[in-house]
Amino acid sequence: MKSAQKQLSAFTMVELLLAMGVCVIGICGIMVLFPVGATASRDAAMETYAANAADQMLGCLKYAITQNATEWDKYIIAEGATATGTSLPDDNPSNKENPTTPYNLQDTAVWSTSLGVVADNIFKHNTNNGVFQIISCRDDSPAVNSPNVDFRAIMNVWRKDVTVGAVTLPHRMAIQLNVEVSWPAALPYNARQKSTFILEVFNPNYSP
User: Fold this and answer.
1) Is 55 within 8 Å of 198 (Cβ atoms)?
2) How many CB atoms are closer than 10 A to CB 56?
3) pTM for this one?
């Protein structure tokens, strides 16, 4: 007596096509997430750079203006006094920039003045008070035309009054420093991402 043999059937072409279709849909769905993740990671890195840039700028300004009364007056002019080349403006100096045409970022004639020993990677605009360029690069001696720049941003810096309750403090006593960081610097102002940071500074050398 012969034993019955179980017949094994292979996958049909329709089944293979359906399985491949499911795999392709799944792989495509995963691949779509890669650019989104890469963009989010890049944006997060740029925002971290921007926050660090603002922190560095505010720290440098605070250090500079609190050294002595002369340095305070150099950046923070008193009410009614005449502004100088280093005085911070009362409003956001972004109105000095063409909203559709970016700055010439590597022109050493425009950005030739750095903050020196305080910060050698921050460069002051020679004609627009309150406008600075900051770069993060891998060079030992940063310059506006450095070839290895990882991050480049424009910083608009201005001052505002400090108010305690209903009392507005005089400029020689306290000031609010405002820094707007916008990036990528190569884009026009209207196309850049922007973040604003604030620091209130009280003059340790103030005497009524």
Assistant:
1) no
2) 19
3) 0.78
